[in-house]
Structures
1.
Amino acid sequence: MAASTAAVPPLLLPSRKRNLFPYAWLVPALLFLIVGILIPVIYTVYISGTNYDQSHLYDFHWVGLRNYGYAFSTDPYTGYMQGYLWLFGWTMVFATGCTIVNICAGGALALLVNNPRLPGRTLFRAFLILPWAVPFSITVVAWRGVLNTDFGAINSILSSLGLGRPDWLNDPNLVKLVLIVVNGWFSFPYFMVLILSVLQAIPADLYEVAEIDGAGAWARFRHITIPSIRPALAPLVVVQFAFQFNNAGFVYALAGGQPPSLDITGRAESDILSSYLWAQVRNSENYAQMGALAVLIFVLVLAISVVNIRLTGAFKEVK
Amino acid sequence: MARVSSANTRDASKEVMQGPIFRSERRLRPDQRRNITITWVTMLFVTLLTLFPIFWIVSTSLNQGDSFATGFLPDKYTFSHYADVLQHTDFLIWVRNTLFVGGVTGVLEVSVIILTAYAFSRFRFAGRRWGLMALLALQLFPAVIFISADFFVVNTISENWFPIADNWIGLIAIYVGTSIPFNTWLFKGYIDTLPYDLEESAYIDGASRFVAFWQVIMPLCRPMMAFIFINGFLATANDYLISSVIITDPSRKTFSMGLFDFALGNFTTNWTDFAAAAVMGSVPWVLVFLIAQRWFVSGLAGGAVKG
Amino acid sequence: MKKTLMALAVAALLVVPSVSVGNVQATSSHAATTITVWEDFPDAALPQMQALANKWAAANGDTVKFVSTSQPGMGGGSQSVTGLLQLKAKNPDAADLAYTTEDSVGTLVLSGIVAPRPASLLSASDIAKYTPSAIGATYVNGVAYSVPQVVDGTALYYNKKYVATAPTTWTQLMSMAKTAKTNGAKYGFLFYITGGIYYTYWAFSAYGGYVFGTKAGKPDTTDIGLANAGSVQAVNFLKSLTTLVPPTTDYNAADSNFSAGNTAMTINGPWQLAAYQKALGSNLGVAPIPALNGKAVSTFIGVRVWVVNNFSKNQAAAWSLAKYLSQNGQAISGTYEGRLPSYKTVAGWSLSPLQVGFAKAFSNGTPMPNIPEMSTVWTPMNNAINLVVQGHATTQTALKAAVQQIKAAIAKQHEG
């Protein structure tokens, strides 16, 4: 039976009590949203106007828009603009790179696994899900070990082949490449599973008809497979981009705030905006300035996502 | 244009992988055999690459000494690190804490989200569209950028009213709150695919809205409920960003907090012990995942694909 | 006669209480409280200090609870005492007394977390018992905020199995390290090269680098000598050490290898003395870090002190406990903590032969500035040294950037 979302009868409104009924269902969520999101947002804005930090934990006071001033200034001792711009640039590259790599890798593997004549298909699918199944906190540190310059497995292999020992996690450029590639390792199972289920929902007759009409493999792919996946992909792209843009957990766990940069913001070359923010709060107790940064990131993500949604046409119908 | 029909989406829970099998080609032609071989070799290569770090961590956990295995396999085997972790670290404490916090978070998430998703799916009320757009917008902002405020609020309350720092209440509230947008969206999509006729017949029989929900819809939502519970639990076990700001007492650390301090500490990088802890911590997860795979796929496909 | 007797009696009543057994000042009667102490004593020292504190507690009718911030088996990453104070000093369950480093007292003073030492706590004769640098370290901008316990620093440890006598210059050390390797040592010389300026200050001092200049006898925070020609030479020297020391050597690698007898020489502090003695026995030697650039080097020395939480409700009792532990715990600290006592001499106790080596090393040491601005120096310098040693930046650029970072952090501290 087809889903009949249009057949939901409108609410009967005989009395005022009926009117409030649906809202009652939303109350628990609302409470948690207030505590978990609304209050932090309000206090973030509040803190950003104070000087609450390591030296002023117990006697902080209001300073107005000073922290925002620093965020946009290029003064050699109090200007963070240059550092923030570098962070922003790398964050965009990282998010874009990850989105492309993850979806393509997941899609490619889904297509390969979708082949009904592949021997050991179920086994492959079970193994390839492991990066997702094993808790992230474990595998990310495993990767740190594997990539260790002096003792890691990868460099052991490379050095025995005479290729030297690249400083994967401490070289400013290599660490960026490593972040995107390893992120692919972590993320592809999710997309593989998703795209696979979409592929399997494509009715087989479509392909048969197309083949009878003389369409080759590539044409079948272009005109049947891709259009079937696209509606599901568009929202995925937006959500994945936003997720990777803010993926501080992964970046900091793998790169650990290395290598340090030379500017006064205290960022690392591997840091994205949100991992820099986290490290500054946790290690340097720089709460007020990071509150201002959080507000700026918030506005930024909003702007980028609006552009993203318009471009990909995702979420066209919000029913 | 091919459309994903809901019937097939829900059937993804059956472990039958469908695909185009063309009537005209039951026997393999030579070039098809070659294609399959290439595909198979590629898959093998990809799988080995994927499993490499996991294999390496198991191998390290068995290596004697406290640094990595220098080759692929350990030079000398020992199980002592497993015993070491259980006896000399707070591993069991972390597991206990994670079970508690994760369990409570998961249960709360499921309860709150199923009510909200049902309301958005089945009811029409003022502000519904705005609510949905808000849920969509909120998905884009993770909790990490608000940790300054989290720290401030938690500390202010701790100093003046009651010690909520190092207390799990604040942590659980933040976890549940930040998981609501994404999961509600997912769950609403799933409920949207359930036919309305079942509830309709319940109303005709005189059931109230809530009873219809409880007795008719909820049993059908079990795969999704399991998915959200496991996801919430996993997010708790994996999170160190937020918990390390709110919790500093070592006896209250959760799994990944403890693991990270252990492995990324300033002075010690005790890789072999860490590897043993990692292996012990992941075995239950992998089992859960492999068993609950079908629910995951149907949950994700049902919710996300429908959008 | 009666008047004289009365006078004598009154005098006796006044004198007797202040001559007490073991210097325990019985405070006026009060409800029994628990004094919480945050500390990071090495495992061997904790039970001894607890026993000592219990003596004080028995005389006062209180209890003393030690809370250790270093967790055995947790492998680092644990909260430092200073960090804990900064986060939680105001909490109801915060400590009353804390054992921390004197160079961090400056930041704590800035945030109003530590209480000034009462003028009546230490008499002139009490103060005279401490070495001048130890008691001097308790003053921040002229006000005393702590009671000293032990003195800390770094020196050269060597394994007599590979190195007969300690080298006196670095050229000697490098050649001895090479010979040691041919004699079977896995590493000729290994130390915590990524440990930042604390573990490498000796190089800066030899070439003329310095942290803060002095103006009118006080540190001048506008005069930072960490990017001058001397500092550049020092960091270049450190980079040249990477022929012997892998550039990513961390504390654990250096420490465990020396304990296991794999290394001929290392640089570490007296807190590891007990562990190394246990591991190497009579093969262990301690000497000052060799001379560099024709000059004797000067390492950073620090003083471990007791501070009292400004938000505590038991400050008087806490100060009393601090004084008791300091005055009566010198021998305990010397023996079990490994660090050197802050007393000039300790009755009935003397430095072990190896500790004499440390005393020699520290006699030329530079006390770490305990002004608040000092806390801004560590991270930028550690980063700069690591970047140069690991080959990701040139010395000039890295040090210049570090000094700029330090100045920026100081500006932020000052603006309020």
2.
Amino acid sequence: MQRYDHGTYEYLRHHKKFPHVWCAGCGIGIVMGSLLRSVQKLELNQDDVAVVSGIGCTGRMPVYMDFNTLHTTHGRALAFATGLKLARPEMEVIVVMGDGDALAIGGNHFIHAARRNINLTAIVVNNSIYGMTGGQSSPTTPLGAMSATAPYGHIEPPFPVCELAMAAGASFVARGTVYHVTELDRLMEQAIRKRGFALLEVVSYCHTTFGRANNLQSPIQMMRLLKDNSITVQAAKKQAEQGQELPAGQIVRGILRDEDRPEYTELYDQMIEKAHGAPLPRKRAVRRGWF
Amino acid sequence: MTLSSHVRLMQGNNACALGALAAGCRFFAGYPITPSSEIAELMARELPKLGGKFIQMEDEIASIAAVIGASVGGLKAMTATSGPGFSLMQENIGYAVAAEIPCVIVNVMRTGPSTGLPTSPAQGDVMQARWGTHGDHPIIALAPASVREMFDLTVDAFNLAEKYRTPVILLADEVVGHMREKVELPDPESVPRVNRQMPGVPPEWYEPFGNPPSDVPPLAPFGEGYRYHITGLLHDPRGFPTERLDEIQPWLERLFRKIDRHLDEICKWEEDGMEDARVMVVAYGATARSARQAIKIARARYGRKVGLLRLKTLWPFPEAVVERLAEGVQRVIVAEMNLGQIALEVERVAGRRKVMRVGRADGQLVTPDEILDAIRAPQAESGPRRVAVAW
């Protein structure tokens, strides 16, 4: 029998970099698998793919994958990726971040990359917690949940990741979970293919830290939560048409926005053309004899 | 129309931007801050004409990040800022040091700490340039003293960055950045350009952080078939994170060695009247202009044998020349627009007893008179004598 992941074997730096750092049962590996299958399905040349990440459990993802990989500082992955994309517009630049990385320390870069609509694929693995540092509250920790820094329950409301990206101007926004893997593969492919800023929120979990603090120690329990508490966009729409309200905490999966709007690197190329063709401004003496 | 036929009036910041373009800079990311904004403005206008890219980022942290990203993509890249923005950039400057990504950071210094005196001149970021980012690391920092030097040292900054795979800081001050003076710039084509070394081996043999005889491993841009990993974690020759003691220490030693072995090329300075000098004034940047005037007056009017050592390279600190010259004089006066930063280094090398500091940090240029007072002051009995400046 052919192994399901056989084809993605060549995309891994398996001789050098395994075993990985993630806990047994972690969802991040599922996201990585999905990313590799999508790259394979889209038949992208490995040399043309760059994966950029920040710091945290998700930030460790690129090192295992045989692409051009850039493991940057905490929160700054999108800013590094913006520079790389401008230098190499022909490359497929995929940015993987955790929720703390993307939305707390990197929140400013997140909204501005979306606003610019630069052709990056941003994957936010949302496990609602800072896993690597030991389970502290993150910007997506649910209200009332326990964490290492919220021993009496979290009193801050969480960021709605997709809504934030849409409000900031992302042209593609989708949400999947690590339980619905086939669907995740499909969303990932579309996010990578999209010309413009594409955000894919992947709802994951951290049974070791979040689970331990909230009586959900087993990854199976956490998976079951994803299964039972999520609904597709289509089903949610139908329910809304029938006048039913979505229960609180329901995860809506699928494509939430897919629009075509001017992409930053394309606009930049047009600007270069314009600047080349324009007569030299004669305002300042600095100009004379130069370029 | 060639450039050399034009003598013109130009601002230091503009000369810096033109120097960058002449050196081959094709990427600029920045965030507005006085007194450096003119550099960004000129780059925004000129880069697209050359097919280069300018982007105004959301803050200085993002600016330096984008610069490093673009450099990874193969472009010569630069950002420009002032004190507050320079503080924000520190973490990623450390990243560029550790990942050995060439880039140029221009800091047109203004008075601090904090928002300080926008935008009066200062030279208060000298130690921040050296030790601003965390951990042990080497760094190169250059200090221009004229509009022409804003051009020349920017070119040097790019060439050193590319040659040694390191961030280079151009520590200008507000006076030099905003000053307009007569300047004759070289033909852009005649400017020496150093490009980073590309690997000459097939991808499977490529070690982006290896240990070649030159101590500077070649750097392949992303997208050229050399797939490798770059990280701010301490890494092995292939770029993968490591905690092995036999890999970490040699790597760190190589980082220092690649700079230390080439001090002759990196350290630049200018001597003026040092042949018969009994008192040496050490200065850099705009303060060196006051110092030059002071020694001129001291010699002409008071017959004092005074010389000037003007540092163009602040880091790595040019110990050898300071030591050599300090041995031949009775006193050393260090003039700078801070309360003693490079003076600490001079004291370390020349001995505390010899060194007198002239400094102010009130947003005013150190005047020739203040330096002259120090030259004429009787030698202190013991310990460093500080010339108090009224403010």
